[in-house]
UniProtKB/TrEMBL annotation, chain A:
Keyword Nucleotide-binding: yes
Alphabetical GO biological process terms: L-amino acid transport
Protein name: ABC transporter ATP-binding protein
Pfam families: ABC_tran
Species lineage: Bacteria, Bacillati, Actinomycetota, Actinomycetes, Kitasatosporales
Coiled coil: none
Renumbered residue ranges of the record's region Disordered: 1-27, 274-309
Entries under PROSITE patterns matching the protein: ABC_TRANSPORTER_1, ABC_TRANSPORTER_2
Native organism: Yinghuangia soli
Family named by the database record: Belongs to the ABC transporter superfamily.
Biased composition (Low complexity): 13-24, 292-302
Record-linked InterPro entries: AAA+_ATPase, ABC_transporter-like_ATP-bd, ABC_transporter-like_CS, BCAA_Transport_ATP-bd_LivF, P-loop_NTPase
Keywords: Amino-acid transport, ATP-binding, Nucleotide-binding, Transport
GO MF terms held by the record: ATP binding; ATP hydrolysis activity; branched-chain amino acid transmembrane transporter activity
Automatic annotation (TrEMBL), chain B:
Chief place of localization: membrane
Organism: Yinghuangia soli
Localization per record: Cell membrane
Protein name per Swiss-Prot or TrEMBL: Branched-chain amino acid ABC transporter permease
One term under GO cellular component: plasma membrane
Source species, domain of life: Bacteria
Family designation: Belongs to the binding-protein-dependent transport system permease family. LivHM subfamily.
Length: 309, 296
C-alpha cells in the first residue's frame, strides 16, 4: 500500500498524529499563513456545525481536511471564504486570519482581495455563459480584466487545462463533469490566488478524471499556490497533502502529517475503507466513544483505494 | 396599406417603450431574483418629477432630474427593503414590492389628482411622413431613443464587468460571490439602471398622441410586465422581443378595432395578456427563458 511514497519532500513537519483535546499543531510561519483558531459556526439557532475548530495552512503546500458528510468541512470553507451568510450561517466564536489580516465577518470579495479563492463543491460553473466568459468571471474580484496580469493568468490556466482552450466558445453547461471541474478550478486560478480552497473536487468524477484532477492540484501547489483541500475521498487527499486534519461532527479529531495519518488504524478503517484490522504497525488512534461503523463499511470508499493505483 | 404601415410603426414605437420598462424588470430580476411590482410607480414618479420641473428647467433639465430621482428612488428601495431586510425569502420581497407600489402610487395619484400633466416634451403634436405613413414625431423619437439606450444596455451587459457580474450572479449567486463579485454593488446598480430606464419610458408613454401623465399611466406601464414574462423574465433579449410583440399586437388590435367588434370593444387593452398566455402555453419558460442547460 506504500502510500508514503506519495509524500512530497517537506522540511518542517508538524507534530505527529495526536488527539486534538487541547493543543493543535501550530505551524505559524513568517506570513501568508491561514490560521483558523477555535472557530465556532452555527446555522440558525440550534445547529452547531463547527465547535472550536483550529487549523493552520502554511504559505505553500497542500493541507487537507477529511471527514464524512456533515462533519463540517464545507462549513469551514464557507467561513473562510465569507459565504456563510448565503447559507444562513454565522461565526459565533474564534478567529480567522490570513497573513495576519482578520477575515472573520468579512465578505467573499474581501477574501478574494486578500488572495483566497474557493472552488465551490459541485463545480458550480456558470452554465449559461461560455467557457471564455466563465474564465473572465474569475477576474471580477480583482478589478482588472484586461491587464497583462489577467492575460498571463489566462495563459497559465489554458496551459494547465488545454481542453478549455478547445471549448472556449461553448456553453459551460455542455462540458463533461471533469471538464466542468477543470473550468471551476481554472476560473478560480484566474484571480491569481495565493491560497486556493477546494471543496470536494473529486466528487462525482470518473476514476481517471480524479487522477487527472489530483495531478493538477499537485501542479498548482508546485507553482507556489497554497491549497486547502476538503475531501471525502481520503485516499486521494492523503496522497496529495503534507498535512491532514480529520473533522468529525464539527471538531478536529485527528491531525498530523498526511502520511502518518494514513497509517493510523482509525483513518484506515474510517476513511480508507480498510477492514483488515490485524497486523498493522500504525499508531493506534482509538479512544473516541462513538465509532461510526456506517462510515467504515460504505462501499464506495473501499473502491477508492484502487484509484490511486 | 398606409394604414398598416402606420399601425406597424406605432406598434414598434409602443414596443420600444415597453422594452425600456421590461428591461428594467429583467435587470432587477436577474440581480435580485425579485419581480419588481413597484416598477409602475417608479415610472409614475419619474413622469411626475419631469412634469413638475419642465417649466423651470426646460425639458432636458427636467428629464435629467427625473432620471436621477427615479434611479435614486429605485436604489433606495433596493437598499432599504431588498438588501436591508437581509435574510428574507424572495417571494416575500416580491410581495413587498407590491406594497411599495401601492404606497408610492397612492401618494403620486393624490398629487396628480384628476389632472393630465404635460411632460413638456419638444415633439408636441407634430407628425411626420415615414414610408407614406403619418406618424407622430414623438413615436419616431421613442423608437430612436429606445434603440440607442437598448444598444448601450446590451453593450454594457455583454462587455462591462458589471454586465458579466450580473450574468454570472443570475446564474449562480454563490459562485459569483466566490469570484469576488461585489453583489451589493451589482444589485444597487441594477435597480438604478432599471429606475432610469423607467423615467425615460415615462416621457414616451405620456407624449403625444397620448394626452399626458395621469393617474392611470402606471397601469399602462404594467403592460410591459407580460413582455418580460413572455420573453422569459431573465433574458434581456427575450424581453426586447416580447416587448415588440406586445407593442405590435396592441397596435394591431387597436388599428383593426372595427374588425374585432365581435370580441367587444377595447380588445387592444387585453391583447398583451392574451399574447402572454398563448406564448406561455406554448413555451412555459418564455421565449428565451433559461432552460435547464445540462448534459444528458
Amino acid at each position: 500500500m506504500a502510500r508514503a511514497e506519495h509524500q512530497p519532500p517537506q522540511g518542517n513537519e508538524p507534530a505527529p498524529a495526536e488527539h486534538p483535546g487541547g493543543a493543535h499543531p501550530r505551524l505559524r510561519q513568517a506570513g501568508g499563513a491561514l490560521v483558523v483558531d477555535g472557530l465556532h459556526v452555527a446555522y440558525g439557532r440550534s445547529v452547531q456545525a463547527l465547535r472550536g475548530v483550529s487549523i493552520t495552512v502554511p504559505p505553500s503546500g497542500i493541507v487537507t481536511v477529511l471527514g464524512s458528510n456533515g462533519a463540517g468541512k464545507s462549513t469551514l470553507l464557507r467561513a473562510i471564504s465569507g459565504t456563510l451568510f448565503l447559507h444562513h450561517g454565522a461565526v459565533e466564536g474564534g478567529t480567522i486570519t490570513y497573513n495576519g489580516q482578520n477575515l472573520r465577518g468579512r465578505d467573499a470579495a474581501a477574501a478574494v482581495r486578500a488572495g483566497i479563492v474557493q472552488v465551490p463543491e459541485g463545480r458550480r460553473v456558470f452554465a449559461g455563459l461560455s467557457v471564455a466568459e466563465n474564465l473572465q468571471a474569475g477576474l471580477l474580484g480583482t478589478g482588472d480584466r484586461r491587464s497583462a496580469r489577467a492575460k498571463q493568468a489566462r495563459e497559465r490556466v489554458l496551459e494547465l487545462f488545454p481542453v478549455l482552450a478547445e471549448r472556449e466558445t461553448q456553453h459551460a453547461g455542455l462540458l463533461s463533469g471533469g471538464e466542468q471541474q477543470m473550468l471551476a478550478i481554472g476560473r478560480a486560478l484566474m484571480a491569481g490566488p495565493k491560497l486556493l480552497l477546494l471543496d470536494e473536487p473529486s466528487l462525482g468524477l470518473a476514476p481517471m478524471m480524479v487522477g487527472r484532477i489530483a495531478q493538477v492540484i499537485r501542479e498548482i501547489a508546485e507553482q507556489g499556490t497554497a491549497v486547502l483541500l476538503v475531501e471525502q475521498n481520503a485516499a486521494v487527499a492523503l496522497g496529495l497533502a503534507e498535512t491532514a486534519y480529520v473533522l468529525d461532527v464539527g471538531e478536529v479529531r485527528l491531525t498530523g502529517p498526511a502520511a502518518e495519518l494514513a497509517r493510523t488504524d482509525e483513518v484506515r478503517r474510517l476513511y480508507l475503507g480498510d477492514h483488515d484490522e490485524s497486523g498493522h504497525a500504525g499508531t493506534p488512534a482509538e479512544g473516541t466513544p462513538h465509532e461510526t461503523p456506517a462510515a467504515a463499511t460504505s462501499a464506495p470508499r473501499a473502491t477508492l483505494r484502487r484509484w490511486r493505483g | 396599406m398606409t394604414k398598416l404601415s402606420e399601425i406597424v410603426l406605432n406598434g414598434l414605437a409602443l414596443g420600444s417603450v415597453y422594452a425600456l420598462i421590461a428591461l428594467g424588470f429583467v435587470v432587477i430580476f436577474k440581480a435580485s431574483g425579485v419581480m419588481n411590482f413597484a416598477h409602475a410607480s417608479l415610472l409614475l414618479l419619474g413622469g411626475y418629477v419631469i412634469a413638475q420641473l419642465h417649466d423651470e428647467l426646460g425639458f432636458a433639465g427636467a428629464l435629467l432630474v427625473g432620471v436621477v430621482v427615479t434611479a435614486a428612488g429605485a436604489g433606495l428601495i433596493e437598499m432599504l427593503f431588498i438588501r436591508g431586510l437581509g435574510k428574507v425569502e424572495l417571494h416575500v420581497l416580491t410581495i413587498l414590492t407590491i406594497g411599495i407600489d401601492i404606497l408610492l402610487t397612492t401618494e403620486l395619484v393624490r398629487r396628480i389628482g384628476s389632472d393630465k400633466l404635460s411632460l413638456g416634451d419638444p415633439w408636441g403634436a407634430k407628425s411626420v411622413e415615414v414610408f407614406g405613413a403619418n406618424v407622430a414625431q414623438a413615436r419616431i423619437a421613442a423608437i430612436v431613443v429606445a434603440v440607442v439606450l437598448i444598444t448601450l444596455f446590451f453593450m454594457a451587459f455583454r462587455y462591462t464587468a458589471w454586465g458579466l457580474s450580473m450574468r454570472a450572479a443570475s446564474e449562480d449567486r454563490e459562485a459569483a460571490a466566490l469570484m469576488g463579485v461585489r453583489m451589493k454593488r451589482v444589485q444597487l446598480v441594477a435597480w438604478c439602471v432599471a429606475g432610469a430606464l423607467a423615467a425615460v419610458a415615462a416621457v414616451f408613454l405620456t407624449a403625444s398622441p397620448t394626452p399626458g401623465l395621469d393617474r392611470t399611466t402606471g397601469f399602462v406601464a404594467l403592460k410591459a410586465f407580460p413582455a418580460a414574462v413572455l420573453g422569459g423574465m431573465d433574458s434581456a433579449l427575450g424581453a426586447l422581443i416580447g416587448a415588440m410583440m406586445i407593442g405590435l399586437t396592441e397596435a394591431l388590435a387597436a388599428g383593426y378595432q372595427s374588425d374585432l367588434d365581435a370580441l367587444g370593444g377595447g380588445a387592444s387593452g387585453i391583447a398583451p395578456y392574451v399574447v402572454m398566455i398563448l406564448i406561455l402555453l406554448w413555451r412555459p419558460t418564455g421565449l428565451l427563458g433559461s432552460k435547464e442547460l445540462s448534459r444528458v
